[in-house]
């Protein structure tokens, strides 16, 4: 199922929330299609689990063979493990951090990425999209070392990859959240472990507050919609201790536990760090 996050006569932002079978093995993930006039881009196309469904699902909105870009916030498997199939089935270029430019070809057959990768420098930039553009915003270390968020000035949507994510089903992810306080418990554990440090979150909030944002749309879980919830998100994230803020010498001890390959459990059971 696809959800229209925004549509006017020339421009549309479509979200897919439930393309991956919910058997509990793979984390729920969202994929996005942005169309401006006759130009189309996919943001965070996903892994092999999502490819067939997304390719078929997008055809009602935009012909895949006309896609211009595959835009990747970072290089994790749930973002671009399907790269080989997209490069085979479309003429699109991969837009990704320069940090990952020479790593991405490991997802594809030999030569497939030749002249098809746009490596984005750390400072980001404006990428033309039809009659408009997408702003590629620096979001490094949130969580990936080379990471970008994507601001669409037409819809005023900020696509934030793994920032602002929440753990839920695809059906729940299709319903935007407007009350942040009730939503925090579904975001907190992920952000404490996957975000690198509070310093990075504060630097990002200083940049993001300069944008006129209608919706923050993460790659897992529900969009955060409306100014009050977005202000609350900024206030929450800029005060959150995470990643290396929470790790100390207790996390770096020579292990004593043993892995039982039959039960796939640790003996004795591990205590949670952080
Ligand atoms: Fe990630
Ligand atoms: Fe992710």
Automatic annotation (TrEMBL):
Question: What range(s) does the Metallo-beta-lactamase domain occupy?
Answer: 28-220
Q: Which domain of life is it from?
A: Bacteria
Checking InterPro entries in the record gives: Metallo-B-lactamas, ODP_dom, RibonucZ/Hydroxyglut_hydro
Q: Which Pfam families match?
A: ODP
SMART domains, from UniProt?
Answer: Lactamase_B
| Gene3D superfamilies according to UniProt | Ribonuclease Z/Hydroxyacylglutathione hydrolase-like (3.60.15.10)
Protein name, UniProt field: Beta-lactamase
Task: Show the taxonomic lineage.
Answer: Bacteria, Pseudomonadati, Pseudomonadota, Betaproteobacteria, Burkholderiales
